[in-house]
Specification:
The structure holds 2 protein chains of 2 kinds.
Chain A: H1 2-8, E1 13-17, H2 23-30, E2 36-39, H3 43-57, E3 61-65, H4 69-73, H5 75-83, E4 88-94, H6 110-114, E5 120-123, H7 127-142, E6 148-154, H8 155-159, H9 182-194, E7 198-202, H10 204-208, H11 211-224, E8 228-230, E9 245-248, H12 255-263, E10 266-270, H13 276-279, E11 290-295, E12 309-312, H14 315-328, H15 335-349, H16 365-376, E13 381-385, H17 389-397, E14 406-407, H18 418-428, E15 433-439, H19 440-445, H20 450-455, E16 461-466, H21 471-480, H22 496-503, E17 506-510, H23 516-525, E18 530-535, H24 568-571
Helix pairs in contact in A: 3-5, 3-18, 9-14, 11-14, 12-15, 16-17, 16-23
Chain B: E1 27-36, H1 41-51, E2 58-65, E3 70-79, H2 81-93, E4 97-102, E5 109-120, H3 123-135, E6 139-143, E7 147-154, H4 156-166, E8 171-176, E9 180-183
Antiparallel strand pairs in B: 1-3, 1-4, 2-3, 5-7, 5-8, 5-9, 6-7
The chains are: A alpha/beta, B alpha+beta.
The complex binds thiamine diphosphate and magnesium ion.
């Protein structure tokens, strides 16, 4: 019945790991051919793979794991998906209903443990309700602000036969509002017409709203000629090659993007949530602007930053209405003032905040990414990352032309996310070039998934920027803790080439900038998983950086400015 | 500041009433939350308050619509207007929550609480306890030669006042239900 429900929901891929409490479902999986089951090597890997699949395809990702340790291993992935609003459905086995509460073997209070890290969860005690709950799980996960859901299914419920009902349009009371309020939309249009220093600030909500939302966004941005910046989660909604693109904003965002946010008079937040990585010091955040905030989740509005024009609704629907109203009122903008604003922005751009110098025989991480970009950007390419400096450099130096092409752990910052996510992406796009830009430390956190990639012939490319450091931790220790580098070394690293070979994969090592292009080409051209050990400068810091507790216009641009910049108050922040 | 009425499925509610005044004044609000009567729903609500660091001053819950499978949770909470708005929005996000009403701002409402007080004493104190109970319209629901159990209903302030009076007269145990509240009129 479980498999039937998944098939009826259009599921073609499940990431999972068996165990005693899910054997009846695995028996069903064995006896069918419609759903591919990808056997991961750790349940955390299953959940991140499902996230990668969901993010890259726009369809929900599905996992199947056993009770107890299977379920607890899924918790990090669930939390990650909750923070980044990724639709996934996790099915867990549970001990039989008559043993619940008896501390049975591999019993855990799965719905209790996962209640705060799911959008919703269910324990199904009656087989007759199972199919309806499964269909409702898909509805809840994918409607409104997407998120992870979990269905806990005791083993006796799996064994029992019950009546199955096919999916039908949800009749549940959970039907989030998608249309924005027209009065507020009109107010926003009026603000657009008169704004002198406008900026679009977009986020992951645009991706979640679907490709149509990105199209509408492009139309609005190009028609108004307003500058646009995006959070880490929203990269690709507006093309990096587009005229109006300022680059990413936030803690490691571009100078021009952060300065524009600081100095604007109209901020149009579309599907972003004023995260602390974005705002920096709240009381100094964009002090002179009127702020419009479009979000499908009412709780995002006024949570951190007061919205002058709040609009609850789905980004796609709201953008459509904004365009309609703006056009019907004559497509007006204050073009003279906006042109002046652009000349100010162009001046900020001349700071060239991402400039670096590749000199000598050691590869700079920025250079490695610049070459990776040059050699892969014309491919049908998907990029995942782990968490750390390499993640920020990837966001800065790679260009994203379309949504759903960039998979990264933003809200939770989960080291170990990228490798399994790349496996999920490759499952969704078997012929694409899928690259995980990794740090050596993060990559080791879920390295066991190399077995999965080999078993299922998934040619994922693991591009490791190996600085032999927990680079981001080291950077903070340098700036904040008097250069006392407590446990931020990657000691006893494996020989990554041999490690790859031990799994039957290809390993490449590169340490010379002159060899880099050839090595990257070798990686791209190899038909199979590749572990690329790119030895880079060990002490490179990631700039620009807005130190914790500082405002957008107090950005650090390079090494020279880093002495004593973070005060005691800032240092308690993360 | 006006109410955020989060009725799921409605397509017309205006986001205009999401505008809070960002003030530091801590206000006490009584919220009525209609929830699906299903296992774990109370844990979801309480987990939200503890997880996000909100206050619960009082909380009552019981099924109110057997057919519709609905329970009503009445929560008295305190916070700045921004926090109260967040609490309501966060409650509205819980999938099992059908409706959130802020009785404090949605117009006049009545609040009642039931409490039981055990008072033990002899002589004058016992007589005085009985006399005050009469003034407060508290009922004696159990009595021994040395103890009374009083039952009292009323607004929480009235119950507080009664407790203050009973304390010097030998108050030994208190049980309170927490606030139940309804809006007035229709
Ligand atoms: C699971 C987990 N544990 C700890 C951290 C804290 N953390 C953030 S970045 C980082 C270092 C990452 O090192 P590496 O993967 O080598 O990337 P680099 O910064 O060197 O590019 C650490 C330990 C985290 N984000 N996730
Ligand atoms: Mg590193």
């Amino acid at each position: 019945m479980v498999v039937q429900a998944l098939i009826d929901q259009g599921v073609d891929t499940v990431f999972g790991y068996p165990g005693g409490a899910v054997l009846p479902i695995y028996d069903e999986v064995f006896q069918q051919n419609s759903i591919k089951h990808i056997l991961v090597r750790h349940e955390q890997g299953a959940v991140h793979a499902a996230e990668g699949y969901a993010r890259a395809t726009g369809k929900p990702g599905v996992c199947l794991v056993t009770s107890g340790p299977g379920a607890t291993n899924a918790v990090t992935g669930l939390t990650d998906a909750l923070m980044d609003s990724i639709p996934i459905i996790v099915l867990t086995g549970q001990v039989p209903t008559f043993m619940i509460g008896s501390d049975a073997f591999q019993e855990a209070d799965t719905v209790g443990i996962t209640r705060p890290c799911t959008k919703h969860n269910w324990l199904v005690k009656e087989t007759d309700k199972l199919s309806d709950v499964l269909h409702e799980a898909f509805h809840v996960s994918t409607s409104g602000r997407p998120g992870p859901v979990l269905v806990d299914i005791p083993k006796d419920v799996q064994f029992a036969t019950g009546s199955y009902s096919a999916p039908k349009p949800s009749t549940s009371h959970y039907q989030p509002q998608v249309k924005g309020d027209m009065e507020a939309i009109t107010e926003l249009v009026a603000a657009i017409e008169t704004a002198k220093r406008p900026v679009f600030y977009t986020g992951g909500g645009v991706v979640n709203s679907g490709p149509g939302a990105s199209q509408l966004l492009r139309e609005l941005v190009d028609a108004t000629g307003f500058p646009i910046t995006s959070t880490l989660m929203g990269l690709g909604c507006y093309p990096a090659s587009g005229d109006r693109w300022l680059g990413m904003l936030g803690m490691h965002g571009l100078y021009e993007a952060n300065m524009a946010m600081h100095g604007c008079d109209l901020m149009i937040n579309i599907g972003a949530r004023f995260d602390d990585r974005i705002t920096g010091r709240i009381d100094a955040f964009s002090p002179k602007s009127k702020k419009a905030h479009i979000d499908i989740d009412p709780s995002s509005i006024n949570k951190v930053i007061k919205a002058d024009i709040p609009i609850v609704g789905d980004v796609g629907h709201v953008l459509e209405d904004i365009l309609k109203v703006w056009k019907s009122r004559g497509r007006k903008t204050n073009s003279e003032a906006v042109a002046k604003w652009w000349s100010q922005i162009d001046e900020w751009k001349t700071v060239d905040c991402l400039k670096f110098e590749q000199k000598g025989k050691v590869i700079k991480p920025q250079y490695a990414l610049e070459r990776l970009e040059a050699l892969t950007k014309d491919h049908d390419r998907y990029i995942c990352t782990e968490v750390g400096q390499h993640q920020m450099w990837a966001a800065q130096y790679l260009g994203f032309e379309d949504p759903n092409r960039w998979m990264t752990s933003g809200g939770l910052g989960t080291m170990g996310y990228g490798f399994p996510a790349s496996i999920g992406v490759q499952m969704g796009h078997p012929d694409a070039l899928v690259i995980n830009v990794a740090g050596e430390a993060s990559w080791l956190m879920n390295m066991q998934e190399l077995g999965t990639a080999m078993q299922f012939n998934l040619p994922v490319k693991q591009f490791i920027l190996n600085n032999e450091r927990l680079g981001m931790v080291r950077q903070w220790q340098e700036l904040l803790h008097g250069e006392r580098y407590s446990h931020s070394w990657s000691e006893s690293l494996p020989d990554f080439v041999k490690l790859a070979e031990a799994f039957g994969a290809k390993g490449i090592i590169c340490s010379d900038p002159d060899d880099l292009d050839d090595a990257i080409m070798e990686m791209i051209n190899h038909d199979g998983p590749v572990l690329f050990d790119c030895l880079v400068e060990k002490h490179e810091n990631c700039f620009p950086m807005i130190p914790s507790g500082k405002a957008h216009n107090e950005m650090l641009l390079g090494e020279a400015e880093t002495q004593g910049v973070i005060d005691a108050k800032g240092s308690v922040l993360v | 500041m006006s109410a955020l009425k989060l009725k799921k499925g409605s397509t017309s509610h205006s986001a205009y009433n999401l505008r809070p005044t960002f003030s530091d004044v801590v206000e006490k609000h009584t919220l009525a939350v209609l929830v699906e009567n299903e296992p774990g729903v109370l844990a979801r609500v309480i987990g939200l308050f503890s997880g996000r660091g909100y206050n619960i001053e009082s909380l009552t819950v019981a099924e109110v619509d057997h057919q519709g499978h609905l329970s009503r949770i009445t929560i008295v909470t305190a916070g700045t207007p921004q926090v109260i708005e967040q609490i309501k929005a966060q409650l509205g996000r819980i999938v099992s929550v059908h409706e959130v009403h802020d009785l404090t701002v949605e117009g006049p409402s009545v609040e009642r609480e039931l409490a039981m007080f055990k008072v033990s004493g002899k002589g004058d104190k016992r007589v005085e306890a009985l006399r005050l109970a009469d003034i407060f319209r508290a009922n004696v629901v159990d009595s021994t030669l040395e103890t009374f159990v009083f039952e009292i209903t009323g607004a929480p302030e009235k119950i507080d006042a009664f407790a203050d009076l009973m304390r010097p007269l030998g108050l030994t145990e208190v049980a309170r239900t927490g606030v139940a509240a309804l809006p007035r009129g229709d």
